[in-house]
Specification:
Alpha-Beta Plaits, 11 helices, alpha+beta, 284 residues, four-stranded antiparallel β-sheet
Length: 284
């Protein structure tokens, strides 16, 4: 159930035009790097300092923190005259999902099981808005449209939280299956997913970062923006089986680049974080 909620939470954080991650997603990346797994809250002034180095205004940072606290994603702590922000359990689950996506799941799906999750639905015109929301949620959960009213994703996907949140019990059918002749898995990939667009996002990432150090002032901000850009790519990748993708699928090269640069930036970023970020221990 948590995995479904994570997907739902992440949907609004990306620019739907595909031009890049929104400032809120950069904030999530920042919090994931510096607060996830720690019983600590961070001083708002520290966040303002770091975000100012990448061109985000103090007003925008304060507004984002306030909205996230108002929706229960952040907890607010006072120490003297200073305000600190910590992770709610809900946000910690979101960030943990992102951590697993980067370091455990990875960008390349080498599974050979061949199973697929299929979602079928039929909604009347009076629920057109719900139909639109369901399609959007399924897209962000890694599903592609196979044919009218039938969506498909590789592997076993839990969509119960999506159905529950939208109040669509009784309107949605979910099942797992394996393709059978004359249908081939490669045909499902070709029909349901825009692999050219997915590949282009990896190529764009490599074009931006292959020089090693884009124009950010230090390793702290370089690592922040590296992770933010990488999550923006992998979150929009349905993680299709590598066996049904071109041999030169760019996710492999892009992930190698990401991991190399993260290693290059990590020590400098950790040192600057220790000097720059003011943390307040919390009870957990």
């Amino acid at each position: 159930m948590i995995a479904g909620r994570v997907t739902l939470t992440l949907v609004p954080h990306f620019d739907e035009t595909g031009s890049g991650p929104r400032p809120k997603s950069v904030m999530l990346t920042f919090l994931g790097i510096h607060l996830l797994g720690r019983a600590s809250a961070i001083y708002s002034g520290s966040v303002i300092d770091v975000f100012g180095r990448v061109g985000v205004s103090e007003e925008a940072v304060r507004s984002t923190l306030t909205r996230m606290a108002g929706t229960g994603l952040l907890t607010r702590h006072r120490h003297g005259r200073r305000v600190y922000f910590g992770l709610s359990e809900r946000l910690a689950a979101v960030l943990e999902d992102g951590r697993r996506r980067i370091w455990e799941t990875g960008a390349v799906n080498r599974s050979e099981d061949g199973g697929w999750t299929l979602v079928g639905f039929s909604l009347p015109d009076t629920r057109r808005g719900d139909r639109h929301d369901l399609r959007r949620q399924l897209t962000w959960a890694g599903f592609g449209l196979l044919q009218n009213g039938l969506w498909v994703a590789p592997g076993v996907r839990d969509v119960s939280a999506i159905v529950e949140q939208l109040g669509l019990d009784g309107h949605v059918t979910v099942f797992t299956a394996h393709p059978a002749k004359p249908t081939e898995a490669a045909e499902l990939v070709r029909k349901a997913f825009d692999t050219a667009t997915i590949a282009s996002r990896y190529h764009d990432f490599m074009e931006k970062w292959d020089a090693g150090k884009p124009s950010f002032p230090d390793d702290l901000t370089r690592r922040l923006m590296l992770h933010s850009d990488w999550l923006h790519v992998v979150r929009r990748d349905p993680h299709l089986p590598a066996g049904h993708l071109p041999a030169d699928w760019p996710a492999i090269e892009a992930e190698t680049l990401f991991r190399k640069l993260d290693a290059d930036f990590r020590d400098g970023a950790d040192r600057l974080a220790a000097e720059t970020l003011e943390l307040l221990p919390t009870s957990g």
